[in-house]
User: Which sequence fits this backbone?
């Protein structure tokens, strides 16, 4: 049986990837590594036929797996990193395919096709992927954020969740519960990192937060998190600038509203 290692530190994304692969009846053995450290251990102990890895994890990036992946075929999934970063990963590691975690989660539908093609033909996948055009340099938009408590700004849809989990109510409910449990803690961590002007952890935290907003199609909140993430990556001063602080305040308000809305959805499932 073919062995696939999935390197992903976000629980919702783990659920989404494994569910979509199993839905396609791809009878492979899946192992999940939740960190770079865990991935290194798995790659040392086991010979995998294919690796599916997120680029940016809490304890490092795929650049930290240069030696570990040099003899293993892998698919790179990014959270909208800039194109120069993606190109660097491709040139140094030789990813057979690259995808971004787009808001519509189309990358999850493309993954099984690429995996099937890879194992069937055992050839390098063509460089140009359907989803690859999204891998563009995302510029930080310096727009004004004036925090307001407007519930209409928080749009939530369960369409992606139904698609990923094939309409299974228990799994959709579980994804909602994960959001409700983790988001307040992530917001608290983000608040503390901003106060300390710890831009590196601000980036990591907002990067992780985006998956929850993505699965429930919360575009405005996804963009707020991405704005903070990209701003923090520019320089240390951006962590304390007014635009970033206001974006955080709005994201905090919106997250509380989203949790209240999702709590009302659970009894209806």
Assistant:
């Amino acid at each position: 049986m073919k062995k696939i290692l999935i390197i992903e530190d976000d629980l919702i994304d783990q659920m989404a990837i494994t569910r979509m692969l199993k839905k396609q009846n791809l009878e492979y053995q899946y192992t999940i590594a939740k960190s770079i450290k865990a991935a290194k251990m798995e790659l040392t102990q086991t010979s995998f036929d294919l690796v599916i890895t997120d680029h940016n994890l809490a304890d490092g990036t795929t650049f930290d797996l240069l030696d570990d992946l040099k003899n293993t075929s892998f698919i790179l999934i990014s959270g909208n990193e800039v194109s120069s970063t993606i190109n660097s990963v491709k040139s140094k590691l030789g990813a057979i395919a690259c995808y971004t975690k787009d808001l519509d989660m189309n990358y999850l539908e493309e993954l099984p096709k690429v995996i099937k093609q890879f194992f069937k033909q055992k050839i390098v996948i063509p460089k140009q992927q359907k989803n690859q055009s999204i891998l563009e340099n995302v510029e930080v938009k310096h727009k004004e954020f004036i925090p307001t408590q407007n519930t209409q700004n928080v749009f939530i849809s369960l369409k992606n969740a139904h698609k990923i989990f094939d309409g299974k109510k228990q799994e959709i409910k579980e994804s909602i519960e994960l959001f409700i449990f983790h988001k307040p803690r992530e917001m608290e961590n983000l608040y503390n990192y901003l106060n300390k002007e710890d831009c590196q952890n601000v980036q990591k935290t907002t990067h992780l937060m985006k998956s929850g907003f993505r699965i429930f199609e919360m575009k405005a909140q996804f963009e707020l998190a991405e704005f903070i993430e990209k701003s923090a990556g520019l320089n240390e001063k951006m962590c304390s600038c007014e635009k970033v602080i206001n974006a955080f305040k709005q994201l905090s308000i919106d997250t509380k509203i989203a949790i209240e809305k999702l709590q009302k959805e659970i009894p209806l499932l």
Residues 151-268 form a domain with the Four Helix Bundle (Hemerythrin (Met), subunit A) fold (CATH 1.20.120). The longest strand covers residues 3-7. The chain has nine helices and seven strands. Confidence is low (pLDDT under 50) at residues 123-140.
